[in-house]
Write a structure and sequence with these properties.
By secondary structure, the chain is of the alpha/beta class. The chain has a single domain, classed as Spore Coat Polysaccharide Biosynthesis Protein SpsA, Chain A (Alpha-Beta Complex), CATH 3.90.550. It has four helices and eight strands. The strands form two sheets. Strands 5-4-1-6-8-7 form a six-stranded mixed beta sheet, with helices on both faces. Strands 2-3 form a two-stranded antiparallel sheet.
Length: 138
């Protein structure tokens, strides 16, 4: 189910130092991890963008330049700076997130007055989080 007020973001920094290569370009079942992440968000979000470098990822989705370039938490902060009421941020290396789960998380965030909605099992930094601007609360 597409949530009309939810925008999705996938941070891509290309610095995957522990992996030794760009995680977004790693393939699984014939598709890149970035392709998996974008497809997952497109099933629940009205629009989906990449937080990263336009010259690297601009052919796959709209790109918003990540001015911080300091990891997932900083990318999430960049999403919060944007004029979107509800931002759904998932890490690029989460190819097994189910549409049903993502939809549940988006619905939970919409029904809540919380600014941050994240699964309890997630450790810091959150790999799958919905941020709601305080101005969008009723």
């Amino acid at each position: 189910m597409i949530h009309a007020n939810v925008s999705g973001f996938v941070p891509c920094r290309r610095k995957s130092t522990r992996m030794g290569q760009d995680k977004a370009a790693v393939t699984l079942d014939g598709r890149t991890l970035l392709d998996h992440a974008l497809a997952a968000l497109r099933e629940v979000c009205r629009d989906v963008s990449i937080l990263g470098k336009r010259e690297l990822y601009g052919t796959q989705a709209p790109v918003i330049e990540d001015i911080f370039e300091c990891g997932l938490s900083a990318a999430s902060m960049r999403a919060l700076q944007l004029a979107y009421a509800v931002q759904f941020v998932i890490a690029v290396d989460t190819p097994f997130l189910a549409q049903k789960f993502l939809s549940y998380l988006a619905e939970t965030a919409a029904a809540s007055s919380a600014v941050v909605t994240t699964p309890e099992i997630t450790t810091t930094p959150a790999l799958c989080t919905v941020y709601t601007s305080t101005s969008s609360h009723r």
